[in-house]
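Notes from hallway chat w/ T.B., transcribed later so I don't forget. T.B. wanted the structure written out for a chain they're using in a teaching module, and asked if we could keep both sequence and structure tokens in one place. Agreed to drop them here.
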Amino acid sequence: MPILNRAAEMQEEIAGWRRELHTIPELNFDLFKTSAFVADKLRSFGCDEVVTGIAKTGVVGLIRGNLGAGATIGLRADMDALPIAEASGVPHASTHPGAMHACGHDGHTAMLLGAAKYLAETRNFAGTVAVIFQPAEEGGGGGNVMVREGMMERFGIGKVFGMHNMPGLGIGEFALRPGPIMAATAEFTITIKGKGGHAAMPHRNIDPIVAASQIVMAFQTIVSRSADPIESLVVSVTKFHAGDAYNIIPAQAQIAGTVRTLKNEVAAIARERIHEICAGIAAATGTEVVIDYDANYPVTFNHADETVFAGDMAASVAGEAKVQRAVAPTMGGEDFSYMLQARPGAFVFLGNGNTATLHNPGYDFNDEAIPHGVSYWVKVAETALAA
């Protein structure tokens, strides 16, 4: 079936919500304006319950069907923005300096609100739909906090589904895969302590910049020489800070970066090699190396049966030809992974068309995607909870 007529009718209204949210981007768990906007909308739709304050600013709305008792499924959208200065030039650009919706979470939130409005109007299902609006996806692990606070048990959620826009994928197209679809992430900060002094007398100092440079270069061998070339692994150094003057060797340097993998055992290899390389170079250069290694989000792993179901629901909206059921995994991270660890479910990508890439200052969610996303959410809910 094509997109829902009602979803098409609501597109401009939902786009208006999305643009309003785009003007007020908020970071991490501090989503006070955003969560208030979401809660107010859910109440106005007539949701049976609207629960706020989960993971500080998370919101869950419950919508009970008219076709009798049944299971509860969760539909999740993320709400937080990124610490980026917007350069999109759109009329609805951020009014919060240094923050913008550069990943489309405003679109995700608006689409799920649109689905909630439709489901509250029709209630053509048995059981309960829990619409989940999550804070702090961008590094804060808000999904993990919601799970740890007992959200699944509190609302009796049996299965959970998530969605993210994908620039470069056509409007009205979907992509997913069973198994790992997004990477496990880790972050490291490495402090190299040496002995500072005059740059004209390097033999009297212990240069942390030289040691840090050797570490950066040695890290390039982890992927090429320590991991199976068939496996997916990224080790990227993204920060290097040291020194303040032309003629002073500093006392310390600091590097930081990220590790991305699709398997736990590959993640373990990368972590071990990082520690071994740092220890070896510290010994060779006379520096002290301190490693802060934070294993962050786990692999986003789609459950087999739920992935087939999600693909079928996407095909019912878009047509089979517009659903990629075996899309290549991405090395980006996603904390919906915690919800998929807690309950079976699936995560899908929704086409955003030919737009700027995610996390780009010029990005803006494509409102043409709205009726497709809303229709998908409705189809998932009504089919999963059919009487």
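Follow-up for T.B.: Residues 152 and 329 are 26 Å apart (CA to CA). Might be a good example for the class.
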